[in-house]
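We modelled the chain as a single entity of 409 amino acids. Its sequence is:
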Amino acid sequence: MWPLGREVTTGEPAAHRFGLNARSSWWEDPLPDPGRGPHKVGWPLFSAAFLLPFLIPATRGLIVDPGPLGIRILLGVLLYAYAACYAWFPAMFRQPRRAKLWFGAGMLALGLVCALVTDASPYVVLYATATLAFLFPAAWSVIFNGTALGLLVLVLWLRGDLSEHLSDVITVASVTSAMFFMSNLIRVIRRLELANQEIGTLAVANERERVARDLHDLLGHSLTTITVKSGLARRVLESSGDIDRAVQEIREVEGLTRSALSDVRATVSEYREVSLPAEIAGARAALRAAEVDADLPHAVDNVRAELQSTFGYVLREAITNVLRHSGAKQVRVRLGRDWLEVEDNGRATGDVVPGNGLRGLSERVAAIGGTVTARARPGGGWVVRAEVPEPSPDGSAVAVRAEPAGGLA
């Protein structure tokens, strides 16, 4: 239930903005998944098959090179360190960003040295650029790989070898670009998987909220009416001993309990529909049992058909509030084509924070483009008004739709 108090108006929720062009899609990866990335055992064997075509001729060239032995040993260490980086990179997926950046910078530096100092082809740089396209987010991959390719072109041009290796450089740039787009496709798929998981979690949470809200609306009203009628039967027996009257009230209590049980089952099955005429009839019976003077409409023909179910929820919650909290002696209900108003002369004064009942009503009405206003009357009492404006002819307003069975989730 919601307590009496200050006016609260709830309308359309704020729109959520989302786009793949967000900054995070360039600078941040999705949360790491231990099962993602190359296999940490199989990858070294797989990488060896890619490295051997580079390591065998490079090693043979260093062996037959007549240059100083110390320089050849140093170049050999650099070559095999570069190869080790390629075989080791899957272990870097779970490392902090700073460690990844240092690893990427070192691997690119080794690749450039191997391509420019030895007689190896510029293709050697591909081991680093392709690796970093998968290891880094998109922005860092562009920065590192773009810088490395630019340095490669610059050094080849300064040495006068650019025309000789131009086709190789173009191939390296093309393959690097292909790896970049492939890695980002994998990231998009990963984000979609995470989004689907979150959607599933939210769907479960929304269903729980729907059931909780429906059970609150249903049992709050039914149990309140049962309590009032049971109290009336007791008072009749205590005061006048009118057995027939007491039996009649107990029969109505039995009918209410059976109806409540049926509605609970239907709510759990998501097939319950609320009828505004039935809610008016139930409100009349409950108010009469509580000895509250009720001024209720006799027909709902003037209310738009798609709003009657939602207005039934509003009426049920408002009447339950009157019976539980207000202490009112008079209740007046008025209906229009797109509005409903419930007014009582109870004890509502001051500012009180709304509770779950009002929030549930606000969610229902806001879901079809309307608002719920709750305020205290001058001189005491409570006014609840639900209103759903008709959509404008140009379609700019929110289209009103009938609430599905079982409530809005």
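As a brief sanity check on the tokenised model: Confidence is low (pLDDT under 50) at residues 1-20, 395-409. The radius of gyration is 37 Å.
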